[in-house]
Amino acid sequence: MALPQEILDNIVDELSDDACSLTICSASSRLLHYRAVTQLFTDVSLHPANYKAFIDLAVTSPYIAKSVQTLRLNGGPLKRDQYFTTDTDLPLALQKLVNVRNLHVRSAFLGQFLALRNPLLHRSLLALPLSSIHLDEVYFNDSGDLLEMVSLISSLRRLHVGAVVSTPTPTPATPGEGEAVGLTELCVDMGTSGSIVHTLLSIPLGNLETLEVNGCSAYDIATINGVLARCPVKTLIVGKSHLCTSFQRTFWMRDGGGGGGGQGPGLDICRLRNLEVTVRDLYTQLQWWVDALRGVKVEDHPQLEAVTINLEITSKTVQPRSWFQPARWRALDEAVSRLDSLRRFIVRVNPGLLEAFSAIIGDECGGMIGRGIVDIIPQDVISCQR
Predict the structure, then answer these.
(1) Do 357 and 309 meet the contact criterion of CB atoms below 8 Å apart?
(2) 35 and 28 in contact (C-beta within 8 Å)?
(3) Nearest residue to 357 (alpha-carbon basis) of 367, 349, 345
(4) How many CB atoms lie within 10 A of CB 38?
(5) Gap between the Cα atoms of 299 and 302, Å rounded
(6) Rounded to the nearest 5°, which phi and psi values hold at 237?
(7) Nearest-CA neighbor of 205 among 237, 238, 180?
(8) Are 218 and 260 in contact (CB under 8 A)?
(9) What letter does residue 298 receive in the DSSP assignment?
(10) Is the dihedral angle over the CA atoms 52, 110, 69, 155 positive or is it negative?
(11) Closest CA to 196 of 249, 136, 284, 251
């Protein structure tokens, strides 16, 4: 007796991460073909070598084009006269991607650069029903050019800005340009796109709930604090950064307290619900975050409910207890134990250090352990990078 089509579809769906098995299913059975092909083309990557093949496929098999939910466009080696493609076939293919929600663009000229050279492709990209855009190694005329593109996509909710290059004299953004931006999640790399990111963070973002920053330094704290003050940000994620205390503060404890360990303004995390940070050393960077949490004033009624620390630290040899800096974890425990709102304190650590680190936490973080809020998670279970 043949299995119902619904069960067959569910079986194919379980193979969604196995491209080889999906390919076999699509070729082996008429009953499995449609579902398997739909899964195979959920995520599509396009680059100059396969533009033509995909264009032909999208024209001859419309149901495949409708299956695409994530589109990755790679322009190839950047040349001043290369803007993806100058023909009209790719824009026509993009017009058939009616269900694409996520767009990743890498190595390309966008904005006015693209609009002048290939206006049809420019309009086709803006017409996609996108909820998420990821930009990396892309060129815009200026920061206003990027803001204009973002504001023209009304469905856009998440924007990831990696390495973005603009002209040396960017056009300043005005409040009018930013009012139409309905982003709820924003991820920026302040190390590779500093000027354009600072402009982006200066516009009104009244719906912003999640902010992720990478490559930031103490000089960027004032900008981040400005966003936290203006926008209803609930979750702040600080990835790999250059935040650290001075030598005197780290080893001699001489500077004053506060979020920056006496080096500039501290991070204002009082209004946040969730804080996630990446720590790459147990000395200057860990001390910076100890000071940041010490700087939270109980009288300001902090709302912080969860703190996650991703320890990107490895060791090939067994390390002594002092290597884990127990005094800093004890100070961190004292800082967060004051926060009645805190419900979870999570540390993600390399599996090889899990046992030794758990012992340190058990000895030094009695306040959090007594409240039952601390959790040590190996990084092979949950990745420390979003």
Answers:
(1) no
(2) no
(3) 349
(4) 21
(5) 8
(6) -120, 120
(7) 180
(8) yes
(9) G
(10) negative
(11) 136
Residue carrying structure tokens 């815009």: 140
Q: Give the separation between CA 215 and CA 191, rounded to whole angstroms.
A: 4
Q: Of 123, 127, 128, 149, give the one whose Cα is nearest residue 138.
A: 149
Q: Cα 161 vs. chain centroid, distance in angstroms?
A: 9
DSSP calls for 161-226: E-SEE--SSPPPP-HHHHTT---SEEEEETTTSHHHHHHHTTS--TT--EEEEES--GGGHHHHHH
Contact (CB, 8 A) for 335 and 342:
no
Please provide residue 108's backbone torsions phi and psi, each rounded to the nearest 5 degrees: -160, 160
Q: What residue type is 286 in one-letter code? A: L
Cβ count within 10 A of residue 240: 17
Task: Name the token pair of 291.
Answer: 């000071």
Are the C-beta atoms of 133 and 156 separated by less than 8 Å? yes
Q: pLDDT tens across 213-259, in order? A: 999 998 899 999 999 999 999 999 999 999 988 766 666 554 444 45
Report the C-alpha gap between 45 and 30 in whole angstroms.
26
Q: How many CA atoms lie within 13 A of 244 on its CB side?
A: 16
Q: Tell which wins on pLDDT, 315 or 179.
A: 315
Which residue, 224, 268, 216, 259, is CA-closest to 240?
216
Our measurement of the distance from residue 322's CA atom to the centroid of its chain's CA atoms, rounded to an integer in Å, reads: 33
Residue for token digits 């196995």?
18
- Which helix (H) or strand (E) segment is 137 a member of? strand 132-139
pLDDT tier for residue 291 given thresholds of 50, 70 and 90 = very high
For the chain, the residue count is 386
Q: What is the DSSP string of 306-362?
A: EEEEEE----SS---GGGG-HHHHHHHHHHHHT-TT--EEEEEE-GGGHHHHHHHHH
- Distance, CA of 146 to CA of 136 (rounded, Å): 13
Tokens in use for 159?
């924007």
pLDDT digits (tens, 9 = 90+) for 73-97: 988 765 555 555 566 778 888 888 8
Beta bridge partners of 310: 278, 348
Q: Greatest CA separation found in the chain?
A: 79
